């Protein structure tokens, strides 16, 4: 991730010097192919910039509001020639749907993500050093539900070929559409995850979104997932980091059970991808080991409660136990995993390896 940040910084220096963010400043003698190449490069770099900011801790170096660059033309590559568009050429993709339609849709999603990052950053950072200003344009943001409804409406309006991932065939055009469908599905789920996190969702909501994301990936043929490559791994590690943050506030038995299920589903999915993505080797095993360590800690606390005959909560440092009050023993031993049960606070040393578990760089 650090290396990508370095190269993005270099790229944005070139953009600023050459005014690549404004098509009106481009050389007048560019041919149609070079124009399309510039547009594809520009918006591809933008989506990478936003993506690294969502997954990592970088900043978005270029705001889409300052851009004046068209989207790439929604046409197959062979239809773009030295003489411009050739309408007499038939599209190789089924139903005249080109893969660039899906590519541009993903760009739309990242432009939406850029604006959700303002709230996402404020929520994720617990140590705010920048002074607040008395007036801000973000005091009355659009609600998460309104944004999500708009995103899902956009998704439903896509052609069917960009919403279904078919098995890999010998038809290159169909495979490309299915790859775009997989990429679109992954990005839609990323938008959902960021929006719910921005709204300060509870553990159950986070688990539901994370589980939907994992199952969406699991339904996609592995060949397309491996083709997405590194960004996919960062999608998955982003899920793990979001779920891992819930441990710091303490969890009930029910909440931990939900998170545990999603983490094991995540480990299973990653294990199927590790063969084709060598740099991720061992991530699934590390995740399962981390879950086993937390399970062992939980069992020890249950044994402690049973031996003392108390309903207890482990303190923030994990150094002791304290009774939670009279009349709760029956509830603690009833075996019912509900949200009224006491919160367990996990020791720092148990969670300090969380970043290492998801380090797949």
Provide structural commentary.
The protein has about 350 residues and is mainly alpha-helical. The chain has a domain at about 215-360. Helix content is about 55%, strand content about 5%. It contains 13 helices and 4 strands. It has helices at about 1-20, 30-55, 100-125, 145-155, 170-200, 205-220, 220-230, 230-245, 255-275, 285-310, 330, 350, 355; strands at about 80, 85, 310-315, 320-325. Strands 1-2 form a two-stranded antiparallel sheet. Strands 3-4 form a two-stranded antiparallel ribbon. The longest helix has 27 residues, at about 170-200. The termini are close together. Residues about 85-95 and about 310-340 have low confidence and may be disordered. This is Xylanolytic transcriptional activator regulatory domain-containing protein. InterPro entries: AtrR-like (IPR050987), XnlR_reg_dom (IPR007219). Keywords: Nucleus. It comes from Salinomyces thailandicus.
């Amino acid at each position: 991730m650090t290396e990508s940040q370095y190269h993005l910084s270099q790229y944005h220096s070139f953009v600023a010097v050459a005014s690549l963010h404004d098509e009106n400043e481009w050389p007048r003698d560019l041919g149609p192919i070079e124009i399309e190449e510039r547009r594809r490069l520009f918006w591809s770099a933008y989506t990478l910039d936003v993506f690294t900011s969502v997954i990592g801790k970088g900043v978005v170096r270029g705001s889409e509001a300052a851009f004046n660059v068209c989207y790439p033309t929604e046409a197959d590559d062979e239809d773009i020639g030295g003489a411009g568009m050739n309408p007499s050429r038939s599209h190789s993709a089924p139903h005249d749907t080109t893969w660039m339609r899906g590519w541009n849709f993903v760009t739309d999603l990242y432009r939406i993500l850029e604006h959700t990052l303002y709230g996402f950053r404020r929520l994720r950072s617990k140590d705010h050093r920048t002074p607040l200003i008395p007036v801000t344009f973000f005091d009355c943001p659009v609600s998460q539900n309104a944004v999500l409804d708009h995103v899902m409406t956009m998704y439903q309006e896509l052609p069917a070929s960009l919403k279904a991932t078919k098995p890999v065939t010998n038809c290159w055009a169909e495979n490309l559409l299915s790859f775009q469908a997989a990429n679109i599905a992954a990005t839609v789920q990323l938008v959902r995850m960021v929006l719910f996190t921005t709204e300060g969702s509870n553990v159950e909501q986070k688990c539901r979104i994370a589980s939907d994301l994992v199952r969406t990936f699991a339904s996609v043929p592995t060949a397309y997932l491996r083709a997405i490559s590194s960004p996919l791994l960062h999608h998955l590690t982003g899920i793990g980091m979001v779920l891992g943050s819930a441990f710091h506030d303490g969890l009930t038995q029910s909440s931990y059970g939900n998170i545990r299920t999603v983490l094991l589903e995540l480990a299973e999915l990653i294990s199927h991808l590790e063969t084709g993505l060598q740099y991720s080797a061992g991530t699934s095993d590390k995740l399962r080991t981390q879950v086993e360590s937390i399970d062992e800690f939980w069992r020890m606390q249950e044994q402690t409660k049973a031996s003392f005959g108390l309903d207890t909560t482990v303190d923030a440092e994990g150094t002791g136990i304290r009774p939670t009050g009279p009349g709760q023993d029956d509830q603690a031993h009833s075996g019912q995993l509900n949200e009224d049960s006491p919160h367990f606070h996990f020791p720092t040393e148990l969670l300090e390896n969380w970043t290492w578990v998801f380090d797949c760089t």
